[in-house]
Design brief:
single chain, 355 residues, alpha/beta, DHBP synthase, Rossmann fold, 2 domains, eleven-stranded mixed β-sheet, five-stranded parallel β-sheet, 13 helices, 16 strands, 17% strand, binds threonylcarbamoyladenylate, binds magnesium ion
Length: 355
Amino acid sequence: MGLGTHIWQVDPERPAYDELQPAVQVLRGGGLVAFPTETVYGLGADALNPDAVARIFEAKGRPQDNPLIVHVSSREMAYSLMGNSAERPLLDRLARAFWPGPLTLVVTAAARVPRRVTAGLDTVGLRMPSHPVALALIEQLGRPVAAPSANRSGVPSPTSPEHVWEDLKGRIEGIVAGGDCDVGVESTVLDITVTPPLLLRPGGVTPEALADVLGCPVVIDRHARAPASEKEPIGPVRSPGMKYRHYAPRTPILLVEAGDGHVERLREVVGAHQAEGKRVGLLVTDESALALQLDLPTIRMGPKSRPEAIARDLFRNLRAVDKLKVDVVVAEGIDDAGVGLAVMNRLRRAAEARV
Ligand code: TXA
Ligand code: MG
């Protein structure tokens, strides 16, 4: 495409009206703008402009059958995109607890939502982000903003303006640069068109927190735990994004799942690959890095006791894997509890194999 991609620096906490206006004008004209959210950077277009939305798929190289999340700045804006008012009470309950924040609610779509956004489904994913820049951008545009993560399809999601630049420079009109993202993994996707609600993608809001508000355990779609695998289809996929291999660096990752004798298993897997003459790198928790005492190229994921910190840096760390210049990276799995489920969903899908 060869567009000149602008970078607009803004104050991430209190973006000024004038700082955001150039980006708002681009969106109004049907252009593409990347912007920070609390989860990851999004690649935004006017959600009600089908031609603008079509350009998102082109810029990302995104499969046409993978629907986009629509971002709103108020609950009224969300209502205006809903096709079944019977879903409002549940949306209200969840929105009161988690909006603005990292929760996407899949609802029946109103007729005005373009089919390009929903990829032909009769549902639409809605989310009110909490990042001040994202909220202000939508508010100033006065229209909902469709936005997938602002990466080229298949690679880790971007959590800094630099990541967006690496992936999309020359392909989009601009990047609103507002620092690093806090949550680091994408939003939780919850389908509320079915009873009980179904968790399609684990993310920033934990299943435990959802269960508290819903008053019952959340049902987790099995694709949310297991990795996508084209070789073994495990039934129909409700969230189209879940069927694609994703988040994968070029260097193959071998994932050692958490469990008993974990550190010794890491050591064995490393040894087995070294015996084949391979250069091995590590992506492990701080505790395991210390316990292993191996002199290998190593990325530390953060402390096991703080899964939020591991989540925040996960995509940055996955992007750094190829810089280790090794033949294979042995990665450590963490506990599925809390935000750990979201971390493990990403790691399992990034991994070539699990042991
Ligand atoms: O945190 C996030 O959710 C970020 C930021 C930018 O908001 N966005 C994001 O978008 O991660 P994306 O496009 O990378 O992922 C959207 C996920 C995909 O797995 C997609 O299949 C699913 O949400 N999704 C969207 N609409 C859906 C629908 N109507 N039904 C089921 N799944 C849907
Ligand atoms: Mg994505």
